[in-house]
Amino acid sequence: MTAAFRGAVAALVVVAARPAPAGEEIDFARDVAPILETRCVRCHDPANRKGELSLATADDLVSLGYVVPGDARGSHLLDVVRPSDDGPPTMPKESAPLSEEEVAILTAWVEAGAVWPAGVVIKERAATDKSFWSLRPLVDPEPPAPEGLPEAWAANLIDRFVFAKLREAGLEPNPSADRRTLVRRATYDLTGLPPTPEEVEAFVADPSPDAYERLIDRLLDSPRYGERWGRHWLDVARFGESNGYERNVLIDGLWPYRDYVIRSFNEDKPFDRFVLEQLAGDVLGPGDPSVEVGTSFLVCGPYDDVGNQDAAAAAVIRANAIDDMIRATSEAFLGLTVGCARCHDHKFDPITQADYYRFYAAFAGVRHGAREIATPEQRGERDAALAPLVARRGALETRRSEFVAAIAARAEAHAAEREAGWTRPPADRGGVEERFEATGAKFVRLVVTGTDRSPATPSNFRVDEFEVYSAGPDPRNVALASAGGRATGASRRADDFQEAYAAALAIDGRPSTRWHAHGPTLTVEFAAPATIDRVVFSADRERLRPSEPFAAEYRIEVSADGERWTPVADSSDRKPLGDAHRRHRLFEAEITPGERSRVAEFDAELAEVGRLIAAVPTFPSWWVGTFSLPEDRDVHVFLGGDPQRPGDPVAPSSPTVLSEVTTGYQLDADAPEPDRRLALARWIVRDDNPLTPRVLANRLWRYHFGAGLVATPSDFGDMGGRPSHPALLDWLAARLRTDGWRLKPLHRRIMLSQTYRQSSAWRPGAAADDSDDRLLWRFPPRRLAAEEVRDTILTVSGKLDLRAGGPGFRLYRYLQDNVSTYVPLDEHGPETYRRAVYHQNARAASVDLLAEFDCPDNAFAVPNRSSTTTPLQALTLLNHSFTLDMSGHLADRLEREAGAEPAAQVDRAFALCFGRRPDDAERGAAVTLVVDHGLPAFCRAMLNSTELLHID
User: Fold this and answer.
1) What is the C-alpha end-to-end distance of the chain, expressed in Å?
2) What are the pLDDT digits (tens) for 165-182?
3) Within this chain, do residues 470 and 609 fall inside the same structural domain, yes or no?
4) Cis peptide leading into 92, omega within 30 of 0?
5) Angle at 900 between CA 898 and CA 906, to 5 degrees
6) What is the pTM of this model?
7) Fewest CB within 10 angstroms: 209, 246, 604, 765, which?
8) Residues 454 and 517 reside in one and the same domain
């Protein structure tokens, strides 16, 4: 395109827009812009720019010659959106072709001069804006008073909202459930455990009008409440005690966060404070472990710790880590899928790419890792205990250094005469050969006194070849495994991976064979005594592993019996590898026996001081993240989500659309790191932020009824569900605020409602109109969650250990080398009989009973758990050793508590498992089973029963 033509086009596309006259004249804003907004800029904007073309402005149309004003035939833009003889149009690629009308509009626009008004920038049109239901200001609606409202449904205002919706649909609610059903339902709901038979009978027999209210209050006060509802939040927080990705290493310092969550729920900590502590606990309570631990929320998700030497790849890994924090925060607290705007503006919600990077700026200084956690008083006490020991160590180190320096100075004075004896080249990692006088031996060993990394203290070295040759005209390698040679030594061994590293490894000369020694020697035993005169060894024959340590200082020894050793060769006449090795050799040659003893005394004193320092109690190291801004504090939009393509700079601030709805915040680009997270947290819980209380109220409702008023608890955007009871949702959210963000009062309101107390009975007529029970014409029954299944089996068997808190137990064998493996345990011992919430849940660690009953793998947040029905559930529950063990324990309990009479045992089993007595038919069948097959078989059947696993 010529300069003159480019200028002509540029002149045309900046013509000011004119009002559309009557008739068919094309107006850019009215006719053309909507097509570009909805069909084009999704892929062709400055942040994406597919085909190197942006349609956000006229610039690329001009510079690339896609449009020739006034010439529709010469405009390539029209060619790609129209069908051709070769087939359908090539654009748009990710959606249906433009309609004939849309193509006609673009053609008419080009023919009319391709006018693009000055200053107009096209952005993809989101499906929602600030008028979307979830972004509107929160209101406190007046509860309705629908016609025909039953008296029992009038007292609790929740029931008014629900009944009004039922009445609109022509539906009636179910009657109340019986007391046995209610006590079982409520107890599981608030504690995740079954009620005891005594608790059931006491409630059923209590004639007091407030018996149910007192039941709810008792359950809310139970420490089991936090264990149950804390588990719900851990799902939302994507809590997992390994880092995931390919290494998937266990994180032992995350359990304090789990305990913090449980404690927060039990204490009914105001949720706004709960939010603040999880995003900025280190700022709100520095030196207070009970507060600082909250920031584990930011770093308890998966992260890639493999590392990458490539700067571009490392930047992507870092961006992924922050992306996890952005998604977790925005979805858990706001119900916004902000993560969808990482590469471009959100396709459906009014979240721009710049908004995403405003969140990014808030978390730019957060990194995964552990920190010592202690109060200032604890730190002061430790410092006081350490100070004299550290001073003593410093004085000893100074005296030792001065003493050794004097010896080293003498050694330098005699250096020339000693260096004259170093005639051979230094040891080579690619191969070392030592020849010596022929000698008989059954054993040969390599004693390493220094490696290329350390001339004095070898900790490990690598050998990929060790050959010992017989003397004579026809030498042979007598160390070969095929010749009966056997190598022994302290080889590398990873915990629980003893199978992978044999105690004895035969060096057989193959390139794949290598020895990673964690001791100073490698010993080879021959099949029979032999006369030898040569040893060849190497660490890296192919020179592919320059970082592996090898033997730089050594000696070769032989033995007939493996007890008495004779040196036959060493490296003393080789040139040293470097200056450190040179100085060490000279020092060793100069030092006298008396001086060596004095150095040993210094070392012994230093070791004792070191032991005393180590004995001073340390502080716990918790996985709570580390916080520091990078040197470059500026955060930029990453075009296309690529860290290598920085765009406009952004500063920490609230999202644009919500700054129009709420009182937003804006920080300077160089704001301190703590201020960034604290400002975000405070904005999330502002009184005028409508999302946080709506999302929280919906989560509570979801866990009580199995489905939220909004079916997508972490997505309140256009792609999420719409509220079934919008006025009720706002009313519940308003109650959260008036209750000071405390959850227990809202639990109480919900569970005291007639809606919650309904029977779960199925009514075909109502189901025909509302098959999903979205309008709540009955209480929705459910299957127990995975943790409830296991905890219930332990409870009724009398084996549940209610110890709370602390490091978790494991239902797997943990195998770790460079990567980790989790092998499910076939047998579960008494140390595993705690509540499942205290299991050390690692990612990608499938654990029999828990996994089969849909315990999630928290690679991501899980706002809605699945509830599947599979054959493996029945097979595992029937045949796993855990169930068999618990069947035996339940049988023992029945014999202790009910005696030897089968009928009494059956009655007690029904009370423990179902909270009721069996009817005559059930009792008769159960007694027959006990008599014919034994009490454990009957108990096994009870633990596999549908009634045990379901709540009505």
Assistant:
1) 75
2) 999 999 999 999 999 999
3) no
4) yes
5) 55
6) 0.79
7) 209
8) yes
